């Protein structure tokens, strides 16, 4: 019998300006195949908008903020088609809609494990949000006006917003560290979920400031996309996905 050994790939050191370079390159990639990437963004934006409006009309407006925070946790898994598009463009091919919707490399057990881990983190985040909200007020605010008035004009509401933001930010950064590189890396059949997640954490710990900038850019752009009634996500989401592929390729240059 032969013993199979696994080695972690080398991780590069990047500059603080690297995230802006990834976004610039992502825009160039987007222009090479705008139609399939736009359709990808339309699908995601439409689904997100329907969920948000369903919560508003059902009187559970506060959950819009909770699910928006959870969106940052699961979004990297939803971007597998965009990583595939970036991979094809890197090979000199032009991706079509079928290529980025039906990604063969995404149908694997390792990706399911990563998705399960993110889902568990998301459930933990929703439970924390429920506790923070319940401890802040005995009332259930069913309309956007009532909830926003409570959050911005009362001491309890401001404390709730600050506490939720700090705790949610810590949980989101944990999830970001686990998935920022591992999700696109799992398109390669030569790695598994353990090597991918460890590599992702190593990339973040070796480049804390650039990766913090990248995480803040993702939050800012996604918040703009959501604030524009989700229409902005049509462009923002493909750009972040394509830039994430470029981030993976620069941070793990030796990866196949």
Low-pLDDT runs: 1-5
The strand count comes to 0
The figure for the number of domains is 1
Q: Helicity, in percent? A: over 70%
Q: Structural class, judged by helices and strands?
A: mainly alpha
Cα-atom radius of gyration: 19 Å
What proportion strand?
A: under 5%
Sum up the overall morphology in one term. globular
Order of helices and strands: HHHHHHHHHHHH
Average pLDDT, to the nearest integer? 85
Distance between the termini: 27 Å
Q: Counting H and I runs of at least 4 residues, what is the number of helices?
A: 12
Provide an overview of this structure.
This protein is an all-alpha fold and 256 residues long. It has one domain. The protein contains twelve helices and no strands. Helix 3 runs parallel beside helix 8, helix 6 packs antiparallel against helix 8 and helix 10 packs across helix 11. 39% of the residues are buried.
Quick summary:
With 256 residues, this protein is mostly helical. The protein has one domain.
Brief descriptors of the model:
single chain, 256 residues, mainly alpha, 12 helices, globular
